[in-house]
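Troubleshooting: if your tokenizer reports a length mismatch, compare against these two reference records.
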Amino acid sequence: MSARQPKVGFVSLGCPKALVDSERILTQLKTEGYGIVPSYDDADVVIVNTCGFIDSAVAESLDAIGEAIAENGRVIVTGCLGKRAEIIRDAHPGVLSISGPQDYASVMNAVHAALPPSHDPFLDLVPDFGLKLTPKHYAYLKISEGCNHRCSFCIIPSMRGDLVSRPIDDVLREAERLVRGGVRELLVISQDTSAYGVDTKYVEREWRGKNYQTRMKALCESLSELGAWTRLHYVYPYPHVDDIIPMMAEGKLLPYLDIPFQHASPRILKLMKRPGAVDKTLERIQRWRAICPEITIRSTFIVGFPGETEEEFETLLDFLDVAELDRVGAFAYSPVTGAAANALPDAVPETVKQERLTRFMERQAEISSEKLERKVGSVQRCLVDAVDGELAIARSMADAPEIDGLVQIQDGFVAGLKPGDFVDVTIMGSDDHDLFGLVDPERYD
């Protein structure tokens, strides 16, 4: 009889990049014979993968660590906040170990020290694509770590370091395994997807008998061979992004770009240490839409950045009107411990920041609502995420999971749809965020 299986609880916080880190740790745990349990009571030790990007994320991480200690008592901490270990130790001196992001070896060493493995190769089987925290039919594909930018509001480089690109053959083999395991949508993530390979001087690697450069265009070309949706996130608008728009028009990539523009005032962008050629950005958006009319552009913005005047905020609203972005997220500026922007003068009062955020989101809601209304009567290719009663909950090519809208398929249950199915949907209605429709007859697989 094999020894009792050691059990680990896991709390994963933060962005999709942190989620991928969690998946890799969980895969290694499972490979070494550890059981993964969903409750504190059943766990012999708990791992908390933290976020530390903004102060609210720090507070959430500290709360999660505190809850794990109160409920279990044996806690290993990793992730971005682990780079600021003194904050964790001050709040929770009893944690067993602290390590930073991507430090999988330190996490496993801490687990081994607290809970020696008891591996049974006949019982502990791990799929070749590893353990995933996302549903079976989509997965995040992380292509690099770190970032070479030094945006004044961001401390990611101090937490995750400079850009380190994964070799393209490693990325493609992972993508191939994921698709073989049932994944139908790959969400490409990094801190700066456009910069992929610059640190390696775009070194060539072999995959499927052909050489590919470690760069974004080659990655997109090769991923298009796998037959899954490929969605690009965190893309900086470098000139070479233009090269992939024709691939979207040809159906090789999802016609979707997630580009964090952050603002539209050249002066504020300069203070942010971000690209500031707003007129050229608008021209490029128009060119992209001319090449690929179906393209969806999502972005994020910061309002109330230090020194932002009412006139500069109005410039941002004007940009929204002209750019007509499909999906937009926004945040009121919040000081982040260690960020250079903290030293900037003329902080915007909190009440003004919140008032501007409200006005910003109201303006964008009008734009988004109008753009969705234009889709009524069209047929949209969708991927089913869930079935809820009579409805199937799906996403169109324009919708990334958890951050964009949904397509509610009214006859999804009757049509026999299941999570992971592709289906063509006739759009019957819309609101500010979502679409509603019916299955187009005999057009799903």
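Reference record two:
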Amino acid sequence: MSKGKSPSEFLRPLATHQLQSHLGRGLHTLGLLGWILQQTGPADVYVSTFSTSDAFLRGFFNLKKKDLVLKSVLLADLKASKKTYKLYKEMQQCFDTVYLAQNHSKVVLVQNDRWTVTVISSQNQTYGDRAECTLVTTSQEIFYEQYCGLRDIVDHDSLQLNGLFQRLADQNTRPLQSADSPAGDFRTVGY
């Protein structure tokens, strides 16, 4: 979040406004998520993004350490996998489950027994000084629609990252099959 800027400078409390938006600079997703969790209390958090950053992951980890994040899921883009590979251990420390898919959406869903909050934004989980558009709503209908879309991508069009690199390494280091095997000396590399 930009120095000195608080989401409360751009938005009103969740309990007083069901639908709010902001177009401009200075409202960053991590600061917004912290602001939301201060109002909702501990909650499940689902994040969908094209790209994430070390700074976002460190901040998200701090929210988890404060016990504000219960269950957490991250859906990131497969094309950003070079960057994802560098951050995958950090992602797995922060999120219970991490998925990769063809994904350009930027959505944050926050849910507990009392609240359903949806953030739809043009911003990735990175920092910059560009103007971004953000919509925040407590509408259960919008939350449900976004949750179903996210779940559909995860269930049908994604690859689970958790343990993927270790599974690939294990797969690629197993001994070659015997000469009598129909596979011969062929061994797949990668996925």
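Descriptive notes for reference record two:
- Strands lie at 19-24, 43-48, 69-77, 97-101, 107-111, 116-121, 132-137, 158-160.
- The longest strand covers residues 69-77.
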